[in-house]
Amino acid sequence: MTRxxxxxxxxxxxxxxxxxxxxxxRRVRGLQxxxxxxxxxxxxIVDGFPDVPVTPRTFVPDDVDGAWLVxxxxxxxxxxxxxxxxxxxxxxxxxDDASLSxxxxxxxxxxxxxVVSVTAGRDPRRAMALRDALTLAIETGDLPLRRSRNGTGxxxxxxxxxxxxxxxxxxxxxxxxxxxxxxxxxxxxxxPIADGVEVVEVGKVPGGPSWAQRDIEAxxxxxxxxxxxxxxxKGGDVHVFARGMEEVTACFRAGVAVEVVPGLSSALAAxxxxxxxxxxxxxxxxxTVVSGHLPPGDxxxxxxxxxxxxxxxxxxxxxxxxxxxxxxxxxxxxxxxxDTPVAVLQDATLASQSVLVTTLARASVEAQGVTAPAVxxxxxxxGLRQ
Length: 386
Ligand SMILES: C[S@@+](CC[C@H](N)C(=O)[O-])C[C@H]1O[C@@H](n2cnc3c(N)ncnc32)[C@H](O)[C@@H]1O
Hints:
Bound molecules: S-adenosylmethionine
Helix content: 25-40%
CATH topology of the largest domain: Methyltransferase, Cobalt-precorrin-4 Transmethylase, Domain 2
Number of domains: 3
Largest sheet: 5 strands, parallel
Number of strands: 17
Distance between the termini: 64 Å
Shape: elongated
CATH class of the largest domain: Alpha Beta
Strand order of the largest sheet: 3-2-1-4-5
């Protein structure tokens, strides 16, 4: 028999399930998630049966009256259920013998607004295995999820991790697979983007041209208001020295739907990729992440370098290349030992990654050749590097 796949909108439809065993329970859950109004006729129900109205008696033919769809899941009176449905022209799905059924229940999964339903040669386990594999491929962004028609626009502010595309989260990959527009930072991971997707590079190249932050925000809002799905792909995490908050605020103000997806910060990933634990039992119980964007003594800086020098623990500096000499001098002046180990981690997680190990006293001279991006780790844990 040839099957014609048809998706039924069950929202608000009355569906009768005859039977109270595990198969009926599974079907009821699926019907509930599709929004159906489910009623059950069964003398007994298994433990953990979903919370739906149950008529506790044997099936009688009049039970099907008024139902939009009937599922016979008894294994005992399914013939009688089907016989009651036929003259009333009500679809009946039989769990006992698919070949006798008017209709079949596929294995179904929903991922965001995509519904996958699979039938597989009347073999439910095979259908479920295929359904699960397809669901995984959708969830991990391996299948083309992009809409071909504009719909409701949205912005996803996504942390892309420190650079290695393998460190993108599953959610980031899925959002990228569905994106119409990708707005990239310079340090965001380089990932393949489907043809036809608008890619805008807004990265701030040191010493080169750069987009003003307000122009980036206006771009995100503009594309979303056009009904497009925008991914704002950032390096590391969205809220670690990354101005994610301003972009979220701009979307809120414009009434644009916005979601924020955390990413793995270079502050955490770079030491790990270099074999340095940020904390180690018996050595240090804290780490502090600090921006080195402004040098010690700069009137705009809110960092108290004296306090950091006395704090102990591990210090992680971002954006410190070019100011490392001044920062190390301030830490030594504040009381941190000259021999304190320092690691300078350039291009962390990328093929070009390099690791320089030095000390607080020698760092400014030995790290002269280092260029951004680099993460600096200061503290005894550098000595534990493996
Ligand atoms: C504007 S901050 C953004 C930080 C980012 N949001 C994060 O959580 O990693 C840029 C700084 O992050 C650090 N950084 C980012 N990616 C890096 C990488 N692959 N290797 C070393 N440092 C990196 C550098 O210190 C760089 O100057």
